[in-house]
Design goal:
By secondary structure, the protein is mainly alpha-helical. It folds into 3 domains: 166 residues, no CATH class; 52 residues; 38 residues. Helix content is 62%, strand content 8%. The protein has a two-stranded antiparallel sheet. It has a two-stranded antiparallel ribbon with strand order 2-3. A two-stranded antiparallel sheet has the order 5-6. Helix 1 runs antiparallel to helix 7, helix 2 packs across helix 7 and helix 5 packs antiparallel against helix 6. It starts with a helix and ends in a 5-residue tail after the last helix.
């Protein structure tokens, strides 16, 4: 338990560092995900990190509804995480959807136009490269100009570029809350162990068992943030999820899913039985 507690504390500290780097990377590469994680619709300088809040799940980009019913935020923290500058500008969902010329942010509507041009140029290039090499080279050069916006050509409306905000926001919040709880739990175990009182700390031991399942929940919520927050993209800005789908039948996917479900259920049962057996045995006498 001592080794596990120390390892847990060190891992928690490392996760804090990687989480900081992930926020910075998202701000540079997936700004829409970061905005959804914070429920940020109107971009601002010295943007705050929402500590507690209740977002308005009915709000849509560009409308006049409130983004939060209430919120408590720490000023400047989001700007620092996103750009390493407390006073920097962090774009919100409205800025990214409709554009913000003041900060050089192109709107989704213009990106859609360039994306559709890229798709047309790519199709024309494929036709011309066999019979008209010179024309094909010209079309390829034109395509390269619009290539970064290729995926937007598949979107039907600007709002399609926005991920499910409420799910992303709450998944991130619960994950962070659990991630804050775990080092406190590890520290409590370590302190009680060093004081020789761990075996008498029944409530703490019960919380430790519950913590196993909370760890799984935190892990899955991390995946929800990663995968839901990046919607609609399979490859950022280049390939929407509905274009990236495979030709596998539903039956094939279901079969694979239930095979994995069966294997991991067996492993879960085996792990619980081993743990239960050890708990019934109790600690070894010194």
């Amino acid at each position: 338990i001592a080794v596990a507690s120390v390892f847990g504390l060190l891992s928690s500290a490392y996760l804090g560092l990687t989480g900081d780097e992930a926020a910075y990377t998202n701000a540079q590469v997936q700004p829409m995900k970061l905005a959804a994680m914070e429920g940020l619709y109107k971009g601002t300088t010295r943007a705050g990190l929402v500590a507690i809040g209740l977002p308005n799940s009915m709000k849509i980009p560009g409308d006049n509804q409130k983004d939060f019913f209430f919120k408590i935020e720490v000023p400047g923290v989001l700007s620092f995480l996103a750009n390493r500058d407390l006073n920097s500008f962090v774009p919100g969902i409205d800025d990214l959807v409709w554009g913000n010329p003041e900060y050089g942010i192109m709107g989704v509507k213009e990106k859609m136009a360039r994306g559709k041009a890229a798709l047309a140029q790519l199709a024309a290039y494929k036709q011309a490269r066999q019979q008209e090499p010179a024309e094909a080279e010209r079309l390829l050069a034109e395509f390269r100009k619009n290539e970064p916006y290729l995926g937007y050509g598949y979107l039907e409306r600007p709002a399609d570029a926005v991920p499910p905000v409420a799910m992303t926001f709450w998944s991130f919040r619960v994950m962070v809350i659990l991630g804050t709880l775990f080092p406190l739990l590890f520290l409590a175990f370590l302190v009680q162990l060093l004081r020789g009182r761990l075996e008498q700390s029944r409530g703490l031991l019960q919380l430790g068992v519950i913590g196993v399942f909370l760890g799984w929940i935190a892990t899955e919520l991390g995946w929800v943030v990663a995968e839901v927050g990046r919607q609609p993209w399979a490859i950022q800005d280049l390939l929407p999820t509905w274009v990236a789908r495979s030709n596998l039948t539903a039956g094939t996917v279901q079969t694979t899913f239930f095979l994995f479900l069966a294997v991991f259920t067996v492993l879960l049962i085996a792990e619980v039985r081993i743990m239960w057996h050890q708990i019934k045995q109790g600690p070894e006498e010194a």
